[in-house]
Structure to design on (231 residues):
């Protein structure tokens, strides 16, 4: 049973560029959340997707956008990269809220480490 | 909005020592509480959680945590740590009946010397 998989694992971009990160949720999960984890900090919630729509959003600018596909996989896009966007980007999956299978636990991938130069 | 404070950012212990990591949250209503752990080179994973009932919660690998509502605290404990407990520990909180989108603390780095 595959867990949450993310790609790429590492990438380097320059200021002003755009980046796309990808996530496949754990088998049986249909809800995907994205988090940003800066060095020495805890994960910060970016947004959550299910049924191919953004359902909740944290305090991140519009430069951060996402998408969810019919197979529940998801992408995180960041435009006009800033040095401060350098971080580990985590994807987490769970069953949809309200389902019995949802125990409140999030299942995380290993993350995509983005460095902006 | 809720917030989480973890008091100890770095903890260094010898094997067999006892561990207690502090976690306090700020939120006016009923909450669900979590501890997640990230071992070196691995993904974040759930250590234990509290939703309701017995405020003393037991998790994997001998860890436990106690919810003290009056103190808004959810401290993590282990009576005797092992070298393999070296990891980052994150406390998290969500409002009860909410969306299960946790707010995380900044984490505590635990190093256990053999």
């Amino acid at each position: 049973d595959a867990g949450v998989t993310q790609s790429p694992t590492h990438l380097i971009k320059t200021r002003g560029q755009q980046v796309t990160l990808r996530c496949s949720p754990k088998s049986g999960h249909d809800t995907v959340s994205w988090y940003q984890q800066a060095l020495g900090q805890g994960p910060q919630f970016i947004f959550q997707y299910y049924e191919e729509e953004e359902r909740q959003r944290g305090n991140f600018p519009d430069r951060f956008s996402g998408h969810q596909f019919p197979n529940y996989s998801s992408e995180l896009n960041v435009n006009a990269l800033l040095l401060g966007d350098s971080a580990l980007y985590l994807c987490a999956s769970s069953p949809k809220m309200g389902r019995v299978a949802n125990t409140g636990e999030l299942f995380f991938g290993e993350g995509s480490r983005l460095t902006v130069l | 909005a809720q917030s989480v404070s973890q008091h100890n950012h770095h903890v260094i212990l010898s094997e067999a020592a006892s561990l207690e990591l502090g976690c306090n949250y700020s939120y006016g209503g009923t909450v669900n509480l979590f501890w997640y752990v990230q071992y070196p080179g691995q993904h974040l994973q759930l250590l234990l959680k509290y939703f309701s009932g017995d405020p003393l919660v037991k998790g994997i690998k001998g860890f436990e945590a106690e919810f003290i509502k009056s103190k808004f605290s959810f401290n993590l404990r282990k009576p005797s740590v092992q070298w393999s407990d070296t990891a980052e520990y994150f406390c998290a909180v969500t409002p009860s009946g909410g969306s299960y989108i946790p707010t995380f603390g900044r984490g505590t780095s635990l190093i256990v010397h053999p």
